[in-house]
């Protein structure tokens, strides 16, 4: 079945589409980056990455026959001998340690005239680490804020606990004061004599 095979038709027949991809990929391998429409860029990426994979396989093997075989497979698709040679001899070194994802697309503003969506497609450099994922970036940003919030909450709890302890101690002292006053003997007034002395007199 041909389900999900109807991608990147570009509004042209198969032969025309193959010619467009060959021309764009040859320009890309020569200049590292090209500007084209977004639809062409999206169609070119999987096509060009398969050619780069052939170049990587040729670089990884020591068998001359296999090297030639991979180069001829690439020539059958790209149709430009100088561009294929440039890729296999020079550009492939960029991708030796990269497992896929050799090209990147940047969207541009619409083209004046027909308002077509434009884009730049470029070959990624060997030392390019790429962009961090949004989830990782958000998690990295949230971690210090989360720590600060936890520290603030802990400090607030400690302060509240300390205040509550002080309040309880003050209340206990206030409760003890009347009891102490009640237990203490009442002071005798000046000049008053004991009852036994008065009866003797």
Describe the protein in words.
The protein contains six helices and three strands. With 201 residues, it is mostly helical. The chain folds into two domains: 116 residues, Alpha-Beta Complex (50s Ribosomal Protein L17, Chain: A), CATH 3.90.1030.10; 44 residues. α2 packs antiparallel against α3 and α3 crosses α4. It is elongated.
Question: Helices, strands, pairings?
Answer:
Elements: H1 14-31, E1 33-37, H2 38-60, H3 64-78, H4 81-89, E2 103-107, E3 118-123, H5 134-183, H6 195-200
Antiparallel strand pairs: 1-3, 2-3
Question: Please, what is the CATH homologous superfamily of the largest domain?
Answer: Ribosomal protein L17
User: Could you state the order of secondary-structure elements as H and E?
Assistant: HEHHHEEHH
Main sheet properties: 3 strands, antiparallel
N-to-C span: 134 Å
Q: From the structure provided, what is the oligomeric state, counting identical versus distinct chains?
A: single chain
- Walk across the major sheet and give the strand order: 1-3-2
């Amino acid at each position: 079945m041909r389900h999900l095979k109807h991608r990147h038709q570009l509004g042209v027949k198969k032969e025309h589409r193959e010619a467009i991809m060959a021309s764009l990929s040859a320009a890309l391998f020569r200049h590292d980056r090209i500007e084209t429409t977004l639809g062409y860029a999206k169609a070119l990426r999987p096509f060009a990455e398969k050619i780069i994979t052939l170049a990587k396989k040729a670089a990884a093997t020591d068998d001359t026959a296999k090297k030639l075989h991979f180069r001829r497979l690439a020539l059958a698709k790209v149709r430009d001998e100088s561009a294929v040679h440039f890729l296999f001899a020079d550009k492939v070194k960029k991708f030796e340690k990269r497992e896929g994802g050799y090209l990147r697309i940047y969207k541009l503003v619409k083209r004046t005239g027909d308002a077509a969506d434009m884009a730049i497609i470029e070959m990624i450099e060997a030392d390019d680490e790429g962009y961090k994922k949004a989830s990782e970036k958000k998690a990295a940003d949230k971690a210090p804020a989360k720590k600060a919030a936890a520290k603030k909450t802990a400090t607030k709890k400690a302060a509240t606990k300390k205040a509550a302890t002080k309040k309880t101690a003050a209340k206990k002292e206030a409760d003890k004061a009347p009891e102490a006053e009640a237990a203490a003997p009442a002071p005798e007034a000046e000049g008053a004599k004991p009852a036994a002395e008065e009866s003797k007199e």
